[in-house]
Amino acid sequence: MFDLSGKTALVTGASGGIGAAIARTLHGKGAKVALHGTKVEALAALAAELGENAVVVPANLSDPAQVEDLFKKAEAALGGTVDILVNNAGLTRDGLILRMKDEDWDSVINVNLTAGFRLARAAVKGMMKRRWGRIIGITSVVGVTGNPGQVNYAASKAGMIGMSKALAQEVATRGITVNAVAPGMIATAMTDVLNDAQKEAMNSRIPAGRLGTPDDIAAAVLYLASNEAAYVTGQTLHVNGGMAMI
Amino acid sequence: MSDVAERVKKIVVEHLGVEEAKVTDTASFIDDLGADSLDTVELVMAFEEEFGIEIPDDAAEKILTVKDAIDFISSKQG
């Protein structure tokens, strides 16, 4: 089950905790992976750890030209195709709306949503020809529930869910599935900065009683990327320890 | 039948899985050959690849019949 031998994958934001876990998991199941990110050293270290069948494709996703270029570079590095696209890259620029600048809104929407759109548009072409493709967006529980201080982030993540559903309908007849994975609170560099009291308060809201791990998310991505999930499309798989049952 | 027409019809037959006899010059991809909107996009992509040309979106929108495709491609090939 879930064998990805012979498949290729582009994972954006692979220098982050969740992105790296996704890349490791897909690679572990036989996929050749292209690792995108902005931290070139971290990507190179991950590629070295994975060994064969891992290539590094850095790009700044705020720049449309670099996004187009990224897809071409990834295809070339992977030997001509991207079978699995994981739109994982994302950033936060939190703040209450009264203090949120246009730049904070724009940068979050550009990287979290628009770059994913551009990559999906580029990827669909080849996937349609091959009659096989997987597009997986890493959204967030807050895209569905909202969260104070994150109007930009929540909008970008909700946008990703809507985009996935629309695209899923466009390409379903071509063997391409489009889904989203919505992590809840995951232990990464982003949550490491919280103090114990904050973490405890958070855990108390999670029925599972713990934060999630990047591997919890990677497992969900692997499932959606697999042949076995061929009949699952337009869905959002919530991986959150029960903190929001939606 | 010109070379272009022959190649266009071959692509249409292969892509839409229709009988060759149905692929007449005046046949409309959507109304007569059962194509959906995604099929028409794929056909344009296939024409671009086969003939090494680029078909801009505004031109692609006007390619509704087999003849439209043949005429456009012939005009590009001068």
TrEMBL record, chain A:
Q: Which PROSITE patterns match?
A: ADH_SHORT
Pinpoint the Ketoreductase domain residues: 7-189
Pfam families the UniProt entry points to:
adh_short_C2
InterPro entries associated with the record: 3oxo_ACP_reduc, KR_dom, NAD(P)-bd_dom_sf, Sc_DH/Rdtase_CS, SDR, SDR_fam
* Gene Ontology biological process terms from the UniProt entry: fatty acid biosynthetic process
Might you give the EC number(s) for this enzyme? 1.1.1.100
Q: Which UniProt keywords apply?
A: Fatty acid biosynthesis, Fatty acid metabolism, Lipid biosynthesis, Lipid metabolism, NADP, Oxidoreductase
List the catalytic residues: 153 (proton acceptor)
Q: Where does NADP(+) bind?
A: 38, 88, 153-157, 186
* Pathway given in the UniProt record: Lipid metabolism; fatty acid biosynthesis
Q: What is the similarity comment for this entry?
A: Belongs to the short-chain dehydrogenases/reductases (SDR) family.
- Function (record text): Catalyzes the NADPH-dependent reduction of beta-ketoacyl-ACP substrates to beta-hydroxyacyl-ACP products, the first reductive step in the elongation cycle of fatty acid biosynthesis.
Q: Could you describe the subunit structure of this protein?
A: Homotetramer.
Protein name in UniProt: 3-oxoacyl-[acyl-carrier-protein] reductase
From TrEMBL, chain B:
User: Which keywords are on file for this protein?
Assistant: Cytoplasm, Fatty acid biosynthesis, Fatty acid metabolism, Lipid biosynthesis, Lipid metabolism, Phosphopantetheine, Phosphoprotein
Pathway it acts in? Lipid metabolism; fatty acid biosynthesis; Glycolipid biosynthesis; KDO(2)-lipid A biosynthesis
* GO molecular function annotations of the record: acyl binding; acyl carrier activity; phosphopantetheine binding
Database matches in InterPro entries = ACP, ACP-like_sf, PKS_PP-bd, PP-bd_ACP, Ppantetheine_attach_site
A Gene Ontology CC term for this entry?
membrane
Q: Which residues carry this modification: O-(pantetheine 4'-phosphoryl)serine?
A: 37
On modification after translation, the UniProt record reads: 4'-phosphopantetheine is transferred from CoA to a specific serine of apo-ACP by AcpS. This modification is essential for activity because fatty acids are bound in thioester linkage to the sulfhydryl of the prosthetic group.
Q: Which Gene3D superfamilies match?
A: ACP-like (1.10.1200.10)
Q: Where in the cell is it found?
A: Cytoplasm
Q: Which GO terms describe its biological process?
A: Kdo2-lipid A biosynthetic process; lipid A biosynthetic process
The record's PROSITE patterns line, in alphabetical order, gives:
CARRIER (PS50075), PHOSPHOPANTETHEINE (PS00012)
Specify the Carrier domain's residue ranges. Answer: 2-77
List where this protein forms a coiled coil: none
A Pfam family recorded for this sequence: PP-binding
For this chain, the family text in UniProt reads: Belongs to the acyl carrier protein (ACP) family.
Q: What's the stated role of this polypeptide?
A: Carrier of the growing fatty acid chain in fatty acid biosynthesis.
Question: What is the name listed in the Swiss-Prot or TrEMBL entry for this protein?
Answer: Acyl carrier protein
Biological source species = Niveispirillum lacus
Instruction: From the UniProt record, report the name of the gene that encodes this protein.
Output: acpP
